[in-house]
UniProtKB/TrEMBL annotation:
Name of the protein in its database record: Sterol desaturase family protein
Top-rank taxon, per record: Bacteria
Keyword terms, alphabetized: Lipid metabolism, Membrane, Oxidoreductase, Transmembrane, Transmembrane helix
Record's bilayer topology term: Multi-pass membrane protein
């Protein structure tokens, strides 16, 4: 089974991606959480065009991606889990958790270092919050993120099937936790024990920098709880909170060409280490 999945990796991942994306879009239509401010056409076309561009840039830039490198490491005996004797399930679960922690720490770093915040704030500049927001990352952030992932995969000798599972889970989790859906408060509370819910991640997209610089997790909520970056709810409530960042607030800023040059525009204010961020 795992052999089959690894051989058909691109097709399998594309099917999982499209399946979850369409499911979330239907769910958003059926039970929306907030009223949309911007017409879907502008945001969906530009956000989806960005994903296509990101995917092309990624495939052309790296000779091998995370799952491929994990396969090579397994064959050649590189990395921690390929050197020590551990049960397969332990390496599988361990690799997924270590990769998820690495992504959390990377996310904190992209908020803290001003030059990296310039790249990552594009994700935050979306003026509405729905499943397609979860796909909105600058191509250079995508490349840096893959370089970090490759380093972690190589160092820990993650099993290829674990890396594939991690990539699919991360992608599905991102589509889910950015979606504009209503979950009953009781259900949200239970889900939040194991999963980042849309209400939890929406706090991270608040225009208030104290809230922007919280809830960095993408899949599991444990790193935020454990490391002190967890904020349960937005101060103004989910209906009244403002989405986005102060800097880019016109519909024209949502177009692909503007998104790509955003890192070069204006000061790098609003990041976690900017002393002006919390002075109000
Ligand atoms: Zn962020
Ligand atoms: Zn986000």
């Amino acid at each position: 089974m795992s052999e089959f999945l690894l051989v058909h990796e691109p097709g399998f991942r594309l099917a999982a991606f499209l399946g979850v994306l369409v499911a979330m879009m239907v769910w958003e239509l059926a039970a929306p959480r907030r009223r949309r401010e911007i017409p879907r056409l502008i945001r969906w076309t530009n956000n989806l065009a960005l994903v296509a561009l990101d995917t092309a840039v990624l495939r052309l830039s790296f000779p091998v991606l995370a799952v491929g490198l994990a396969g090579m490491a397994e064959a050649k005996g590189w990395g921690l889990f390929n050197v020590i004797e551990v049960p397969r399930w332990f390496a599988f679960v361990g690799a997924i958790l270590i990769l998820d922690l690495a992504i959390y720490l990377q996310h904190v770093m992209f908020h803290a270092v001003p030059g990296l915040w310039r790249l990552h704030r594009m994700h935050h500049a979306d003026l509405d919050f729905d499943a397609t927001t979860g796909l909105r990352f600058h191509p250079i952030e995508i490349l840096l993120s893959m370089a970090i992932k490759l380093a972690v995969v190589g160092a820990i000798g993650a099993p290829a099937i674990a890396v594939l599972a991690f990539e699919v889970i991360l992608n599905a989790a991102s589509l889910f936790n950015h979606s504009n859906i209503t979950l009953r408060p009781g259900l949200d509370r239970v889900l939040r024990l194991v999963l980042v819910t849309p209400d939890m991640h929406r706090v991270h997209h608040s225009v208030d920098p104290r809230e922007t610089n919280s809830n960095f997790g993408f899949s599991v909520p444990w790193w935020d709880r454990l490391l002190g970056t967890y904020v349960a709810q937005p101060a103004k409530g989910h209906d009244r909170m403002e989405i986005g960042i102060e800097q880019f607030r016109t519909p024209r800023d949502l177009w692909l060409d503007r998104m790509l040059i955003q890192p070069l525009r204006g000061p790098a204010s609003g990041g976690a280490l900017d002393p002006r961020t919390y002075r109000r």
